[in-house]
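Quarterly update from the structural biology core.
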Amino acid sequence: MSIGQTLKDARSDKGLTLDDLQQNTKIQKRYLIAIEEDNFAALPGEFYVRAFVKQYAEAVDLDSKELLLQLAEQTGKDKEATPEEVVDSRTKKRKLTESNKAPSKFETLYTYLPTIIIVVVVVAIVGSIYFVTLNNKKADAQIDSSSSKVSVSSDVSSTTKKASSTKKASSEKSVSSEKKTEVASKKAKSTKKSSKKTSSKQKITSTQVGASTFTYELTGSKAKTTIKLGADATAWMAVSANGSQQWQGTLSSGASHTVTLPTGTESITFNLGNSKATTITINGQKFNFLKEDATTTVRTIVINVKD
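Predicted structure, tokenized:
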């Protein structure tokens, strides 16, 4: 019996419809139909064939390991390498190729560049010290020469200078006092703004952890919530607001997609096909959902938005 027929019979025995199974596994109905018809080419890729078959089997209480072995025999393919393993293999090959190349003239020059820079800096410092010392000697000679020509000022001039100096000091104290008052006022305003920003800071809290479903609570968010999805490797994902799907698709490595949710959204749902390679940013804040469970690949995340 084929894999698709085995899964379909198990579903029928449990009295589940395709809609029920879609609700339980968060796998789209068209993919469930393709699996039951052994039409694995209709799925996003080999990685998702294994992931969806495993999740379908667990949902109808079948041995997922046995079905995956049967899948490998049926499709004539061994276990597919994960995107992370493919990237790591390519990186190692590239590093090995680069290490075998003979160093170029530019690389040789780059090796000695720090030494050259140090020598130039040392020469510049020594030269600066020499010129400063020479200029100081000339200035001292000029001062000694001019000091013999300076005459003593009259008492009236001295008194005038003292009065002027006293007025300047009083004026400077008044300006200094005004500046201090202004700085204190700015600091008070800055403290108030800082406290307002802190009080309205966004916070995401875990409230429930299941086998593949994780529930969180979002507080302090904006009126309109902006979601940015990214991928470190090929990953399928979908976003829903209040039960209505806003976007779904497959992102390649390094790609991203931004979704702005409707005003008044109270519930956000993420369906992730490759959560280990997926990144989520909510209103500019990175959402670290892997800290609750870093091993689950296919997962559902539900975020309840609170005022």
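Residues 118 and 124 are 10 Å apart (CA to CA).
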